[in-house]
Amino acid sequence: MSGRKLRIALLAGGVSAEREVSLKSAQQVYEALDKTRYEVLRYDPRDDLPRIVQEASDIDVALVILHGRLGEDGAIQGFLECLGIPYHGSGVLGSAVAMNKIVSKHLYQQAGLPVAPYIVADRKAPPSSLQELVDSLGLPLVVKPEHEGSSIGLSIVKKEGDLAGALEKAWRYDRRCLVEKFVAGTEITAGVLGNHDLEALPLVEIIPGEGYEFFDYDAKYTPGATREICPARVPEDIKRRAQDYALRAHRALCCRGYSRTDMIVSREGEIVVLETNTIPGMTETSLYPQAAAAAGISFSRLLDRLIELALEKD
Questions:
Q1: Segment 297-312, tens digit of pLDDT
Q2: Cα-trace Rg, the chain
Q3: Is 162 part of any known ligand binding site?
Q4: Are the C-beta atoms of residues 146 and 174 closer than 8 Å to each other?
Q5: Which of 29, 18, 95, 109 is nearest to 259 (CA)?
Q6: Beta carbons of 134 and 121 less than 8 angstroms apart
Q7: Do residues 207 and 228 touch, judged by C-beta distance below 8 A?
Q8: In 10 A of CB 114, how many CB atoms?
Q9: Domain end call among 154, 181, 208
Q10: Are 288 and 214 within one domain?
Q11: CA–CA distance, 242 with 148 (Å, rounded to integer)
């Protein structure tokens, strides 16, 4: 490949509820890629899978800037594996387990990571008593679908009477949903970079704006709806612990290349691990690029590094 530009397949769009976020991220990625080093070929898996198959032999590496189902869940990764196209980020297994909030919880617990108390609610075998569920976990509760990202389908339940509606909302996306105890505190996120030699990036503190109870879809993607502070304003011992948890979560879920693990620091100073993103938002002002910038890694250099990691042999 020396003497010519690397041919990068930039995959974005797709069919998930997070399509528009994916397209926005990919546009900024496209603009930041060094065109003196890369020839960038753009594909939308919603329409372009046959073209990817046809042009696979011309592609050196794929940047998968897809979010949600059929993009972040191992499906497109398996497709690329079948075509022999190297791609950045986690493989089929890591993508699939990180996307599944219930499986992730089990793996976090096996790795000794702290999680909020939870119950799995199955639409095919619904809880016999919502009162018992509330008695078991207490209020408020967080109800979320098994697979969706960007807080899609998520509800915060403050009254028992709202629980049935929250379950129905989550069940519209998945047969199973997660019902967990709401933990009040400071929202933080910790990025990890690398394949074998992992680097924990500086923490980002997330402050949802007025009118937003938590970092939901609108808070994530409405300009000015939230404020992020990097490095996060947390004590040094919490910083070290959160970075360690992010590294352990990355390994427990078999992630590769990079990941971002979201956590809550409770008012008592305890850290609760929420979930791990294998394809974090990749606009220049997204959380992961902010953390990389705080570590001295520019957005363009971050993309270079992700491409290098994609081409690195296991």
A1: 999 999 999 999 999 9
A2: 19
A3: no
A4: yes
A5: 95
A6: no
A7: yes
A8: 15
A9: 181
A10: yes
A11: 24
The 10 Å CB-count burial string (b at 16+, else e) for 208-220 is: beeeeeebbbebb
List, for residues 9-52, the tens digit of each pLDDT value.
Answer: 999 999 988 898 899 999 999 999 999 999 999 999 999 999 99
HSE on the CB side for 243, CA within 13 Å? 18
Sequence-distant (≥ 6) Cβ neighbours of residue 4 within 8 angstroms: none
Q: For the full predicted model, state whether its pTM sits above 0.90.
A: yes
The token pair that represents 286 in the structure block: 């997204």
Is there a binding annotation on residue 275?
Answer: yes
Distance CA 92, CA 13 (A): 19
Distance separating alpha carbons of residues 239 and 231, to the nearest angstrom: 9
Identify whether residues 109 and 258 lie together within a single domain: yes
The residue range of the domain holding 32 is 6-87
- Using CA atoms, how far residue 274 sits from 81, 126, 294, in Å, is 29, 24, 23
Distance, CA of 4 to CA of 99 (rounded, Å): 36
* CATH label of the domain that carries residue 278: 3.30.470.20
Q: State the total domains in the chain.
A: 3
DSSP states along 220-256: HHSTTSEEEESS-S--HHHHHHHHHHHHHHHHHTT--
> Does 262 show up as a binding residue in the annotation?
yes
Nearest residue to 43 (alpha-carbon basis) of 60, 67, 26? 26
Residues 6+ apart with CB under 8 A from 236: none
3-state secondary structure (DSSP) of residue 29: helix
Residue positions annotated with a catalytic role:
18, 150, 286
